[in-house]
Amino acid sequence: MNARFKDLKITIKKWITDIDNTDELSSDIRALCFNLYEPYGIEMIGSSWFDEEDEEWACDEDFKPTQRVCPNFNVPDSFTWEEVLEIVISILKELINEVPGLKLFKVEHIAAGFVDRNLIIIK
């Protein structure tokens, strides 16, 4: 991972870790969704239900962290949305493996995607 994306990974890791340390994740949350949008940004929500065939689960915001939007998510607009999605999916997969003890990563399902586009199931 080049230096720019290493910095982005550090930013995302700090954001997720801060949420994990400050927000109470209810035991009924089954899935997390990392929503990407343009100009490039990312937010997290949690849902009490999940259906791989019905992405509407990601619209039910049963968990809304205090710091819902990742600060300092600096991605140049020269990147396509497909590139940004690929980078974020890669970072999230790495973080799930690197810090499996986070309460947030203990949910059954984790997905990411751009708003109004298909979700990618990560876990």
Provide a descriptive summary of the structure in words:
This protein has 123 residues and is of the alpha+beta class. The protein has one domain (3-121). The chain is 31% helix and 18% strand. It has 2 helices and 4 strands. The chain has a 4-stranded mixed sheet, with helices on one face. Helix 1 (3-22) packs across helix 2. The chain starts with a helix and ends with a strand.
Overall geometric form: globular
> Could you give the order of the helices and strands?
HEEHEE
Number of domains: 1
- Summing up helix and strand content along with how strands pair, one would put the structural category as alpha+beta
Biggest pleated sheet? 4 strands, mixed
Termini, distance in Å? 21 Å
Labels describing this entry:
single chain, 123 residues, alpha+beta, 2 helices, 4 strands
Give the SSE map.
Elements: H1 3-22, E1 31-37, E2 41-47, H2 81-98, E3 109-114, E4 120-121
Parallel strand pairs: 1-3
Antiparallel strand pairs: 1-2, 3-4
Helix pairs in contact: 1-2
Brief summary of the model shown:
The chain has 123 residues and is an alpha+beta fold. Helices cover 31% and strands 18% of the residues. The protein has a four-stranded mixed sheet with strand order 2-1-3-4, covered by helices on one side.
